[in-house]
What we know:
CATH superfamily: Glutaredoxin
Helix content: 40-55%
Number of strands: 5
Largest sheet: 5 strands, mixed
Radius of gyration: 15 Å
Amino acid sequence: MKSREELAALRERARQALAVRDRRDGPRVVVAMGTCGIAAGARDTMAALLDELAQRGITNVSVTQTGCKGLCDREPMVEVHMPGGQVVTYGDVTGPVMRRIVAEHIVNGQIVTEYAIATRTEGQ
Length: 124
């Protein structure tokens, strides 16, 4: 750090990065980050998700992580919770697939069926 301004800028970037975890008004994306998920590439999936949201200027999506979902052979796994209660679980979600899920499902409301493992309504 060379100045207070640099420190303030760093703090603001960190605050904005953490703010994506607290959104309540839009979709919620949960990335499975258990040991098997991380070994299968879940960190790259999470990075692609955060990068794609930032590039598109999407700020109303809550991003969180969870542990193992129990389907190790389908990792990395991601759940997309849309307003209204629809939940889609995706499997084999690499970075490019995550970007596609953002574009097609989160932005346009279309489920990416070839990666969808399950669809349910919240609370069921």
